[in-house]
Amino acid sequence: MSTDTTHTTDTDNATAAPKAAGLSRRTLLQGTTGLLVGVYLAPMSRSAQAATPKARAAAFAPNAFVRVGTDSTVTVLVKHIEFGQGPMTGLTTLVAEEMDADWSQMRAEHAPANAKLYNNMAFGPIQGTGGSSAVANSYEQMRKAGAIARALLVQAAANAWSVPAADIAVERGVLRHVASRRQGRFGQFAVAAARLPVPQDAPLKDPSAFRLIGREGAVKKLDVPGKTNGTAQFSMDIHEPGMLTVVVARAPRFGGKVASFDATATRAVSGVVDVKQVSSGVAVYAKDTWSAIKGREKLRVVWDEAAAEKRSSAQIVADYRQLAKTTGTVAASQGDVAATVAGERVIETEYVFPYLAHGPMEPLNGFLVWDGKRVKARYGSQIQTLDQMQIAKVFGIKPEDVEIETLLAGGSFGRRIDLGHDMLEELAESAKAIGPNKPVKIVWTREDDITGGFYRPAFVHRLRGVLRDGKLASWSNTIVGQSFIIGTAFEGLMKDGIDGTMVEGAKAIPYDIPNFRCDAHIAKSPVPVTSWRSVGSTHTAYATECFIDQLLETAGLDPVDGRLSLMGKSARHAGVLRTVAEMAKWSSTRPEAGRARGVAVAESFGTFVAEIAEVSMGGNGEPRVHKVWCAVDCGTVVNPDIVRAQMEGGIGFGLGHILFAQVSLDEGRPMQRNFNTYRSLRIQEMPEIEVKIIDSKEKPTGVGEPGVPPIGPAVANALARLGKARPTQLPMVGGLQA
């Protein structure tokens, strides 16, 4: 009996992703270079379920792909941008698990921009990344893609060996028929597998058989080698022949517009090629970045500031405080918060939150070229569908004539959701203004990025709680701030005058309170705002968890036991809270002298996180966080190492911002410009972090954002237990300076 063995070298498969146009179910699965699998998961809406088979077939659009090369590499086309949160590794793990592939043969690429093929099923007919949804919306989809690929390879091997498919086993990328002692690797059968009909039902593994999903240390992140050896490509790395670098001079006040400009001195700068006006300001084109920046410094611009924001941060907060004295649009209520009883105790508190920049490692930038008919863009695109629409609008073409190659991005935290007169529109307008067939790369400096807006909005919370017979009887929270979504493509999510993202984490809290109300005033300002890592929970978790701690303290109750006593309907909140209390030995161990511990718990994007922070006051009068215990329940875990890393990163990110960060306005002008004034956490200030992941059978949820919300209130509550004032205005160090 002969043995068929294929030995191949696992090399990177650099084959480009297939073009979306003209794909059919059959052509996706046929080819001469290997096997390509597309998987479509039908929507679960009632209308979709009721559709006829003919209608469903007509709507078929593959939106997840697996490509198996003849060299046995398996390339997963990832529909989500990779900017450090782990979808390339996470989604590839799902495919590798179901294929029984060896991790060394796995590769990942960003999928092309095409919502029909690669839509985020949490968003609807939109391709994009956000809301910690990457793994959650792709979990079943990518497992099915892997299962189908495996089934096709197995059938191809069965046909080649004339044996039943059921008798073939797959282990670490090798197909084996034990009885005949035949074996072969994926690449040997890829072409034959591509010619087979797609199985209608490829069974998924039982979780008990998982070898990669949820296993500690089972995989290594796919994007790390390239990022450490310098081969990873970011849009900042792009240098094309004939490319012009563009920087834009923008109004010093938000809402300002160009009245006139004089570019005489700019054009005299060596390397400067041209100067053009765009919607957001004046664009300077040069042969290199340095020349463009020096040319911009020579510009003389007169700004029309009639509609600009001219208030200081202090004035904005004063206006918000005035609004907070009245009830806004009610987001949620029960009982009667206005009812009073003799002998009750009323506690009122106000919390103030500043504008926050995102400050990703890589500032905004992008590359674009158009030929007069079509556009090709390369950059870290977070929401490809909206980006295609925005670019198409500038050029007066169809979105399908905009090709976006999504590149790795050096962080985002929400900043790459391009929603207005921002990087993407500047890039498109600059390319259009200079003419076709002239590639341009726009560059934002760090100063541009921090002063350029699209901040986390500033907010004021006014809370009122009532203790009756030692129990929490009433709770009201009035929130004032700008909407995250008004004026954006997401404005349709407004419901009954409420921006749900603005009140998330406040309109539904995990505590059983008979009389409850959450209401909001939407303030207006020319200052552009957008989502920021964990969105509404960035401010609501701080306000609610500080306030509940204050109420429990007033009632003489333990912060952990008191919370648990109010969590009758919040089992997962209670689960992480109990776990983190056990981790820190809350009831049995006292921190050393001069230190205290505070606790907070929050749910965001379906993930539950509780944190305990051990804090002291440093000799410089600033809080010093020594250790943070963190318990996280994110349902079924795909990559435990990534979960821990995201919790650690979220804690460090959140801690730096609640301690030091703010963008304050002086008569409408941002005062902070770089990391020397937009202060964040330094490496020596990073606390020790211990993370425990709750074992759960619930559906998977995201981890990119939920580590952020609890850290602020945990630190604030620790300070209160130290005998210090619980900070009511952030950042804790410095405060508003205007």
Could you characterize the architecture of this molecule?
The chain is of the alpha+beta class and about 750 residues long. Helix content is about 30%, strand content about 25%. The chain contains 20 helices and 27 strands. The chain has a seven-stranded mixed beta sheet with strand order 10-11-8-18-15-16-17. The chain has a five-stranded mixed beta sheet with strand order 13-21-20-19-14. Strand 3, helix 4 and strand 4 form a beta-alpha-beta unit. The chain is globular. About 50% of the residues are buried. Residues about 1-30 and about 40-65 have low confidence and may be disordered.
Give a topology summary.
Layout: H1 25-28, E1 34-38, H2 46-50, H3 53-58, E2 65-69, E3 74-78, H4 87-99, E4 106-110, H5 115-118, H6 134-161, E5 168-171, E6 174-177, E7 182-185, H7 186-194, H8 224-229, E8 244-250, E9 257-262, H9 264-267, E10 272-278, E11 281-286, H10 289-297, E12 300-304, H11 313-324, E13 329-334, E14 345-353, E15 365-370, E16 375-379, H12 384-395, E17 402-406, H13 423-434, E18 440-443, H14 446-451, E19 459-468, E20 471-482, H15 500-503, E21 515-523, H16 537-554, H17 559-565, H18 571-583, E22 595-604, E23 607-617, E24 623-633, H19 640-659, E25 665-666, E26 669-670, E27 688-693, H20 711-721
Parallel strand pairs: 3-4, 8-18, 16-17, 20-21, 24-27
Antiparallel strand pairs: 1-2, 2-3, 5-6, 6-7, 8-11, 9-12, 10-11, 13-21, 14-19, 15-16, 15-18, 19-20, 22-23, 23-24, 25-26
Helix pairs in contact: 4-6, 6-7, 12-13, 16-20
